[in-house]
């Protein structure tokens, strides 16, 4: 590996320069093939090691092979399965209760039509004659 410069750059000069992506990729490939080490790149181009590691994480071969591995214990898996069963049972129960409620509403509606009586209590209706008699006593 050939060194680019034999003199030190000032801090402001190092901060002002920008490395192109193609340059970074080239240096990452050199590191991956073993032609250069991270410390050699750092010394040759007066760049911080953290920047070289960022290049490796961005442009390196291993950067493309990031997979998430989810580790669950057997008890976690069993708990998830049991909770899903419980949710399914509760949804089934809610569905049954909804059907029963709709059935009762329909029965009340039919009974009101057949007998001509208002079965559902409505607020604001006048009390029956017998309820007044019980209040007086």
Tags for this model:
137 residues; mainly alpha; 2 domains; 6 helices; 64% helix
Overall outline: rod-shaped
- Fraction in beta strands: under 5%
Number of strands: 0
Order of helices and strands: HHHHHH
Sheet with most strands = none
Average per-residue pLDDT, rounded, comes to 82
Structure description:
With 137 residues, the protein is mainly alpha-helical. The model has no long low-confidence stretch (mean pLDDT 82). The chain contains six helices and no strands. Helices cover 64% and strands 0% of the residues. It folds into two domains: 11-65; 74-121. The chain has helices at 11-16, 21-33, 38-45, 49-59, 74-115, 129-136. It is rod-shaped, with a radius of gyration of 40 Å.
Short recap of the structure:
With 137 residues, this protein is an all-alpha fold.
Could you give the topology of this structure?
Elements: H1 11-16, H2 21-33, H3 38-45, H4 49-59, H5 74-115, H6 129-136
């Amino acid at each position: 590996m050939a060194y680019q410069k034999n003199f030190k750059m000032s801090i402001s000069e190092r901060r002002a320069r920008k490395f192109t992506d193609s340059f970074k990729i080239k240096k990452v490939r050199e590191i991956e093939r073993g032609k250069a080490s991270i410390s050699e790149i750092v010394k040759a181009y007066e760049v911080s090691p953290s920047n070289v590691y960022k290049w490796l994480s961005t442009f390196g071969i291993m950067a493309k092979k990031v997979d998430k591995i989810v580790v669950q214990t057997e008890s976690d898996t069993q708990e998830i399965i049991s909770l899903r069963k419980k949710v399914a049972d509760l949804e089934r129960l809610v569905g049954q209760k909804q059907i029963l409620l709709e059935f009762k509403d329909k029965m009340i509606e039919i009974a009101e039509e057949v007998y001509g009586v208002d079965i559902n209590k409505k607020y604001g209706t006048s009390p029956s004659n017998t309820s007044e008699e019980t209040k007086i006593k």
